[in-house]
Amino acid sequence: MSKGYSLKNVDELSGGDNEFIAVLVQTFLEEIPPDLDSMVQAVNSDNPQMAYQYAHKMKPNLQLFDIDLLAQIKQIEAWSKTNKAKEEILPILEHIVTTVNGAIENLKADFS
Asked: Is 55 exposed, middle or buried (0-12, 13-18, 19+ CB in 10 A)?
């Protein structure tokens, strides 16, 4: 079963320094959940600009941990530039939330 994340990029960035890896994981676990919640709130309250900001902010962390959501994050960003109803983006948002929360749970389990 996939963990929903990979440490390949983290290992490259850290040069195998386990303390640095732990700091990167801790930072991810502290920053991503509130950003994810804020992005969900922004979509639910029909605030596309705020949704864009949080989606854009999360992108580098998701890429660092190889969480394969780039296409979906780009869809949130693109939605923010249209006048489309939030209902059109909700299934994509739900996929992002499910995927990120799964990765968070696995990271917590692996680094606790």
From this structure: buried
